[in-house]
From TrEMBL:
It comes from Sphaerisporangium corydalis. Residues 1-23 form the signal peptide. This is BMP family protein. Residues 58-355 form the ABC transporter substrate-binding protein PnrA-like domain. Keywords: Cell membrane, Lipoprotein, Membrane, Signal. It holds the Pfam family Bmp. It is found in: Cell membrane.
Length: 356
C-alpha cells in the first residue's frame, strides 16, 4: 500500500485508445497504467497461449511497496510461469466515484481481458455490477466477499497475522507502550487492530496500546497520506510508545519516518517492508505482517488456466499460509521461537483470534 509511483510502460495503440476513453468517462482523478506483452515477431516460434489478464489496482498502484505491489508480484510470477498472452493494469485515482471504478473494470472486460482482478474492497459494488454485465468473464476481488456466479473472493485472516506482530511488539517493547495507526476506520482495517491488540495482550495483559485512524469513510485519503501517518506516529512516540504498527497503505511511509526520528521501531504490513520500503527507513522496521496477496493472485490465475477456477470465498489464513510475520534483518530472532508457539496455537485452534 505505499504510494510511490513506478515508471509506466507504454501501451499498444488499441490499449491507449481505451485508456483515453476511460479518462474521458472517469475524470482527472482516474489514472491508468497499461502493460502489454510485445507483439510476436514473424520469427517467433511460440507465441504465448495463456489468457489476457486485466488487473485494477487500489489507490497508488504499482510502486506502493506494499499492498498493490504484492498483487503485482503475483501477476509477474504468472507472466513468467503461465505464459500469459497479454496483461493490462489500471490504477485507481484518489477521491474517485463508484462510477469510475465500474468504468475501469468495464474497460478491461470490454477489451477482452479475462480474467479481471480487482485489488481491494473499494471495488465491491463496482465488481458486482460489472460482473453481471459480462457473465462470461471471470472476476476476482481481493479483501471483499462481493457475491456473483463469476466472482472469486480472495480474502485473508489479517487478524491472525496481526496477532503475531502484536506478540512481537509486546515481547520487544522496553516501555510496555506500543501503538497502532490505521489508514481508514473500516471493518477490514479493524481486523488488523483487533489482532494486534490481542497478540500484544496475550504476552502482556496490561500493555498500553494507542490507536489512531487517519480518516473515516467516505474519505479514503488515509491510505495515501504519509504526512498524516507521520504526525499520528509522532504523537505516539512523544507519548512514550516505542513500537508502532501501521496498516495504512501509503501513509505507512510517514510512520517509518517518525520511528526513525524518534529512535523507535515500526512494524510493516502486507509485504516484507524491510525489503521494499525506502532504504533510509528499513532499519527501523522490526517485522512486517505478511499478507500474501501475491500468492492469492497467482493461485487464482493458475486455477483459471487450469480450468478449475471457482466462484465464492477462499480464505488465506495462517493454516493456509496466507498470513505470517517476517524475520528480515534478524531483529526478532530472539523472540521468534515464542511467536512461533503462538502461531502454532492459532493453527491448531488453541487460540482463536477475533476479527472485531
Amino acid at each position: 500500500m505505499l504510494r510511490t509511483h513506478a515508471g509506466k510502460l507504454a501501451a499498444t495503440t488499441a490499449v491507449g485508445a481505451m485508456l483515453m476513453a476511460a479518462a474521458a468517462c472517469g475524470g482527472s482523478s482516474d489514472t491508468g497504467t497499461a502493460t502489454s506483452a510485445p507483439a510476436a515477431s514473424s520469427a517467433s516460434s511460440a507465441a504465448p497461449t495463456g489468457p489476457k489478464v486485466g488487473l485494477a489496482y487500489d489507490i497508488g498502484g504499482r510502486g506502493d511497496q506494499s499492498f498493490n505491489d504484492a498483487a503485482a508480484a503475483g501477476l509477474e510470477k504468472a507472466k513468467s510461469e503461465l505464459s500469459l498472452a497479454d496483461t493490462k493494469e489500471l490504477e485507481a485515482g484518489s477521491g474517485e466515484t463508484g462510477a469510475q471504478k465500474e468504468q475501469r473494470l468495464r474497460l478491461l472486460a470490454q477489451g477482452g481481458y479475462n480474467p479481471v482482478i480487482a485489488v481491494g474492497f473499494a471495488y465491491s459494488e463496482a465488481i458486482k455490477k460489472v460482473a453481471k454485465e459480462f457473465p462470461d468473464t471471470k472476476f476476482a476481488i481481493i479483501d471483499d466477499a462481493a457475491e456473483g456466479p463469476n466472482i472469486s473472493n480472495l480474502v485473508f485472516a489479517e487478524n491472525e497475522g496481526s496477532f503475531l506482530v502484536g506478540a512481537v511488539a509486546a515481547l520487544k517493547t522496553k516501555k510496555d507502550h506500543i501503538g497502532f495507526v490505521g489508514g481508514v476506520q473500516v471493518p477490514l482495517i479493524k481486523k488488523f487492530e483487533v489482532g494486534f491488540t490481542r497478540g500484544a495482550q496475550a504476552v502482556k495483559p496490561d500493555i498500553k496500546i494507542d490507536v489512531k485512524y487517519l480518516t473515516q469513510p467516505p474519505d479514503f485519503g488515509g491510505f495515501n497520506d504519509p504526512a498524516k501517518g507521520k504526525t499520528a506516529a509522532e504523537g505516539m512516540y512523544d507519548a512514550g510508545a516505542d513500537i508502532v504498527y501501521q496498516a495504512a497503505g501509503g501513509s505507512g511511509g510517514g510512520v517509518f519516518e517518525a520511528a526513525k526520528a524518534a529512535k523507535g521501531f515500526a512494524i510493516g504490513v502486507d509485504s516484507d517492508q524491510a525489503l521494499t520500503a525506502d532504504e533510509g527507513v528499513r532499519s527501523v522496521i522490526l517485522t512486517s505482517m505478511l499478507k500474501k496477496v501475491d500468492v492469492a493472485v497467482f493461485d487464482f490465475l493458475k486455477s483459471y488456466t487450469d480450468g478449475t477456477v471457482q466462484a465464492g470465498v477462499k480464505v488465506y489464513d495462517l493454516k493456509a499460509g496466507g498470513v505470517d510475520f517476517s524475520t528480515t534483518g534478524g531483529q526478532v530472532d530472539d523472540v521468534k521461537n515464542k511467536v512461533d508457539e503462538y502461531k502454532q496455537k492459532i493453527i491448531d485452534g488453541t487460540i482463536k483470534v477475533p476479527a472485531e
